[in-house]
Amino acid sequence: MNFQELLKKRRSIRNFQKKEVPIEVITDIIKEACLAPSARHSQPWRFSVITHKDTIKRLSDESKKNILAGIAVNPDSPHKAYEAAMHNERFNVFWNAPCLVFIYGPKKHDYLDCDCALAAAYLMFAATERGLGTCWIGLGSHIENPELRKEIGLTEDDRIVAPIIIGYPKSIPEPRDRAEPEVVFISS
User: Fold this and answer.
1) Residues 6 or more apart from 143 whose CB is under 8 A from it?
2) 3-state secondary structure of 42
3) pLDDT in tens, 97-148
């Protein structure tokens, strides 16, 4: 697959085959994600890989609970649009994917968001190149329960930046239209 094909085939996938992703494949994908650039070559990212369905469901329920608590405190929350889904017991924030990867790092790192986002992009491209589908699940980062965080390898000093689901897609949607970029050229 050439780079142009890779760009066009990387789609947000939320419907997966009931097929496990081998741990060796996930390990290789993570190694390639670590080739991403990082500020001051700090490489602050860490990865937590969850393939246990019940744990993924508990993480989904935890995120939903915390999102609803946030909406209760702030009715103008941008998450308000997802309130009905958060109340639906059958809705899984992680779309019942066979694999969930949290990309996270130390809260105090100055460029954590940028560095982890770059690693996430590399991870998604590495997965796409192997015929896997991914989706960044922003709603899945609301994991606050200390025991659950510890269970997946996070400390109180860590912050989740990119929850990425991975699996074999049932289908790959066509790319959606993109707006023309706004570009300002300054030349001599």
Assistant:
1) 59, 62, 63, 66, 102, 149, 152, 154, 160
2) coil
3) 999 999 999 999 999 999 999 999 999 999 999 999 999 999 999 999 999 9
> What is the CB neighbour count within 10 angstroms for residue 135?
22
Residue 181, in any domain of the structure: no
Amino acid residing at 166: I
Structure tokens that stand for 64 in this block: 């939903």
| Residue 6 CA neighbour count, 13 Å, CB half | 13
Say how far apart CA 43 and CA 34 lie, in whole Å: 8
Residues 6+ apart with CB under 8 A from 12: 134, 135, 136
The number of CA neighbours under 13 Å toward the Cβ of 12 is 8
What are the C-alpha distances in Å from 103 to residues 17, 117, 166, 169, 188?
A: 23, 9, 13, 21, 42
CA distance 19 to 115: 30
The answer to the question of residue 186 being in a domain is no
For the beta carbon of residue 49, count every other beta carbon within 10 angstroms.
17
Which residue segment(s) compose the domain that 117 sits in?
3-167
